[in-house]
Amino acid sequence: MKKAFKIMMFFLFSFLIYTNNVLATSAEIALCEDENVLKVFQIGGYLLLVAKILIPILLIIFGCVDMFKAVVGDSEALKKQIPMFIKQCIAAVVVFLIPTIVEFAFTLIPDGDKSLEKYEACKVCLFEPGSSSCKAE
Questions:
Q1: One-character DSSP codes across 117-136
Q2: Residue 137's closest CA among 31, 7, 47?
Q3: For the chain, what is the domain count?
Q4: What is the dihedral angle through the alpha carbons of 5, 6, 11, 17, rounded to the nearest 10 degrees?
Q5: Angle at 127 between CA 125 and CA 132, to 5 degrees
Q6: In 10 A of CB 119, how many CB atoms?
Q7: Nearest 5 degrees, angle CA 98-CA 104-CA 107?
Q8: Is residue 133 included in any domain, yes or no?
Q9: CA dihedral of residues 40, 42, 48, 52 (deg, nearest 10)
Q10: Are residues 134 and 33 in contact, defined by beta-carbon separation less than 8 angstroms?
Q11: Domain that holds residue 120
Q12: What is the pTM of this model?
């Protein structure tokens, strides 16, 4: 285990040391004005919406099934299952709140509103895929 960790750290540091610097230009990239890019963000938004609803429901259902098996079984299985069920419920809540957490993290960026204005169409398509404003300008 330690050997694998050391090898992984070696490759990580060697990658960081030997990467070339990227020279940025002042050219503006109109990424969120392309209709095809907006469609990709919209599809991602629908996938995020489905995952945001389906994953917590599945976690809670599987947790309830496992809890039922533990209740029917012996008391040792029940003692092991209760912390696991609590972890599954917490995971379900976290998965449901991931888009809100990400959006909150962007509000913490200083002057984030000014620098992220040109990506507003992409944000709308990702977080509100059914919106009528999710179209190329």
A1: GGGHHHHHHHH-TT-TT-S-
A2: 31
A3: 1
A4: 130
A5: 45
A6: 14
A7: 150
A8: no
A9: -170
A10: no
A11: 31-127
A12: 0.61
Question: Which tokens hold the place of 115?
Answer: 């620098």
pLDDT digits (tens, 9 = 90+) for 50-85: 888 888 888 888 888 888 888 888 888 888 888 888
Whether the CA torsion 128, 132, 134, 137 is positive or negative: it is: negative
Q: Does a structural domain hold residue 10?
A: no
60's tokens: 């809670």
Rounded Cα distance between 67 and 61, Å, is 10
Q: What is the pLDDT of residues 109-122, one digit of tens each?
A: 776 667 677 778 88
The residue among 56, 41, 133 whose CA lies nearest residue 89 is 56
The C-alpha atoms of residue 24 and residue 45 are separated, in whole angstroms, by 29
Q: Is the dihedral of CA 66, 71, 72, 77 positive or negative?
A: positive
What pLDDT, on the 0 to 100 scale, is given for residue 95? Answer: 82
Q: Decide: 126 and 45 in contact? Cβ < 8 Å.
A: yes
